[in-house]
Amino acid sequence: MQSQEVDQRPAPASAGAAGPVVDVEQAEAALVEHYPRLVRLAYLVLPPRLGRSRRVLTAHALAQRALPGGRKQTSVIPAQSTGRDGDPGYAFLRLRVLRAALEAARPRRTLPRLSQLPPLLPQVWGLRLFPRSGGADELALDQRLSALSGPARAAYVLRGLEKLSDPDIRRILEAAEADEPDAALAEANGVPGQDALLSSPEYDPCSLQARPTDLMRRRQHTKAALAAAAALAVCGALVFMPGGGWGPDGAAAPLYAQNPAAQAALDPGKVTRVPPTAWQSAARTDFSVWPARGPLTGDKALLRRALAVWARPGETVRVSSTPGTQTGGPAGPPQLLYAGTVDGARVVILHDGLRIVRYAEPTDGTSGAALDFARVDGATGAEAGSLVLGRSDGNVRYLLAPWVEKAAARDLMKPGSAPTPLTVTGGVTTPLASPALQPGSCTSWNVLQLTDAWGTRLATDLGELVPAHLTAGRPGAPAEASGTDGLRTWAPFACSLAMERSAGVRSVNAWAFANQPLPEGSGSAGWLCTRAETWRGDGTAALAQFRTPGGAVGAVVAKGGDVPACGPRDPQVLAGVLWKSKTGAWYLLAAGSEGTASIHATGGVTARGQGQLLAVRAKQGAQADLKATLADGRQISGLH
Q1: Residue whose C-alpha is closest to residue 342's, from 135, 118, 53, 51
Q2: CA–CA separation, 310 and 550 (whole Å)
Q3: What is 264-324 written as a DSSP string?
Q4: How is residue 585 annotated by DSSP?
Q5: What is the distance, to the nearest Å, from the Cα of residue 438 to the centroid of all Cα atoms in its chain?
Q6: Is the pTM of this model over 0.90?
Q7: Of the ranges 126-130, 277-281, 465-469, which one carries the lowest mean pLDDT score?
Q8: CA-based nearest residue to 293, from 450, 399, 430
Q9: CA-based diameter of the chain, in Å?
Q10: Containing H/E element for 483?
């Protein structure tokens, strides 16, 4: 493979004499043939601070700009030995892409370069595009690459993706006008080589997932169009008047009441600020002892806008709440938990004793304010250990309780893998892949692992402000899911958590209640029940799940809403499933929890069995009603 000069500037002195030439037709052919690899190279070298969606568009823009202007031939500098089928056109384009990506990674000057600006083309309206989220290994590599300088990232990628030697990499970096190529190589040598991950879908900007930007803002109605036209006329009349940006109350609606209590609740100078060390001597571990953190806690204008929008959200404010959560204004001055900039938005998090309220506004412009509510009444310990600070590009950042000592990301589907430590700065974690934003098939489920003086706990993002606490064991006395037994219990059934998204879930417990020998000597199947408790009390969900021998994941076979089954008040459960053996025979399998004396099936299958297990021949598609008699004589019905 040859490295080639990428524009009309003279090659550096170290590049040597001019080599072969590449005309526009040859470069265009190389671009068509190697386009996916060039875009992947640009995506990996671009600075991670751009965000995954902008990196995707910028990588495509840099690859498309790599073609030289005009029709004349372009000289190529000699570099490494041949590779990529000895195509000088590819080497020419690679050097142009690399130089542009390195320019984008450099600090901005007074006038930014073209590669440092958002790309004019390609453009996507109404959608955010990003590659598929990877697992714990990809997350760890992404964090290591983000800590490298631009030239060091380029050196690492050229070695791992292009399979080049250090001398060849040094010559390419010099030709691309990288800063200190020797230092970049030394820095890249400090990161363990993971060549296979560089070719994984996590870093493929040509295989993308799409998510909407903001569906609410894209709904157009006749009244809205008329209102916009009227507003445009007013703005035209006021265009020469002084002022601009956020008003004192931001996106809040006009005042509709004046009283001392309401005014006190909206006074940024009266918000409660807990001292940083208060939690160390407090008798409780809940949100009331969280200190105020973030670099904007002293920005009274921001706090005033957040309080005003909370009390009177305007028509342009996107308001969301967990089920059963009131969205009214504060009764008095709330407690400030955080104020700062997160992923391109100014964020304020407040607590009024019963709710967590998150206000967010864009750092650029005055449209797109959001207000999110979540109930947290009675939260303590693990339930008050973290909050979702923001989500962006398929990732989530958390704000941690002051008593948390360590934080890590763990793939719940891989109980034997080690957790990936997360860097925590001012109580804020580095981003990790969010299962709440994971589209398509479920191949991993990242959870947050927190360690404090009381132990290690797991929590998962289910699309709300407060992550759900995960436990494992018999209802009424479950253990933390972070233990060895808990991780093994959850691993095959982690993807079932997707059914609990945006349901106001407080905690989810997994209980392996039975193992059942299968007919025809087919091994032993496992029965498990997961129960999701909510902050509001009702809306609980119990799922019976079944896993055959050797199965990677379990399957939900029955469920119940607002039932006592699998819960601490009634730790009993009964469920059944139709199962097909290797010989093609169908069976009705049923299992009850410990303490089940007998099981009775009626309807499409009539059978009775003693003990907590039942296995009888059945017809394909048969439907049966299950009932069980407990050892104390009480009867229970099966989940449906």
Answers
A1: 51
A2: 52
A3: HHT-GGGSB---TTHHHH-S--SGGGPPPBSTTTT-HHHHHHHHHHHHSB-TT-EEEE-TT
A4: -
A5: 7
A6: no
A7: 126-130
A8: 399
A9: 94
A10: none
